[in-house]
Structures are given as C-alpha cells and as structure tokens.
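ESCALATION

Customer reports they have been waiting on this structure for their group meeting. Please prioritize. Original submission:
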Amino acid sequence: RDLLPAAPSYLGHGFCVVAYDSRWRGAVSWGASEAADAAEVVRWVRSTLSPQHLLLHGMSQGAVAATIAVGLHRAPADSLIVESAFSSPEAIASHLRTGAISRVPIPEVLQRIARRCSWVVPLLARLSLAPTALESIRGVTVPTMLVAKTGDWLVPFEQ
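Update from on-call: job pushed to the front of the queue and completed.
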C-alpha cells in the first residue's frame, strides 16, 4: 500500500502495475519468505502478462525482498528499484536498539518489552541465516536504482 500512490505515474508511462501483499507482512522473516513470493509474482507476470519491460519496485522490507528475489532467486525482472532497504537484519536490529523503537507504531508496553529484550533481535537475525539485501545485491545483474534519504528514522541513510 505504500507504493500505491506511485501506480498512476507508472500507468501513465505505459507500465503494467501488479500490486500484491506478502503473506508474512509484519512477521519476522527478514524478507526471506517475501522474496520467494516476489520471485513467484515476477515469474507469473512474465509468463501470463508478457510485459515488454518488467520493473520490480520494493520499499523497506519489500525492497529487501525485491533485492533477494532478483539477486538470489533469479526473478526475471528487467530492472529494479530498491527504496529504503535495510542492509541486513543485524543492522536494522542494531538501529532499533539505539532508540528508534520508540517511533515504531506499537503500544508503549510492547516498546518497553522490546527495549528490555533488545538483545534477542540481533541473535534471532543471526540464527535465522536469512539472506540479506547486502549479500543479494551482488547477484543482481539488471539496471538498479537505489533510493535512500537522510532523515529516515527506520532505515538510516548509512545503511
């Protein structure tokens, strides 16, 4: 839904737009299951709609999923836009531990629990062995635009 405002612009420039929601949205999969979904959606679009040019655009965790889909799962996209992707689960967990958790729209009691148990998130991230955007970008061979901005409280520009 974050990218829906961009759909009219894409349509106006002749793109076919397919929007979908990942099955694990909100869960802790670090983009791994979302990447498999994105790769399947790209394959379906390619085989069913036969677009002239297939652009995959992901934002935040969707950007991580898009990068893994193209770089690791070899989703047949022609180009890629990666917007505000976190470089690794450890990086985003570390950032949240520095105080950004207070800006996440969850109840205060959950924020307090998250602060007290903040050591668990990096541990889970390491144990998950999930592929990262940073590792997966090495396998991307299509034209790619990376978008980041200063002042992003969730994914710092440095990532």
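Sent to customer with the following note: The two ends are 23 Å apart (CA to CA).
Escalation resolved.
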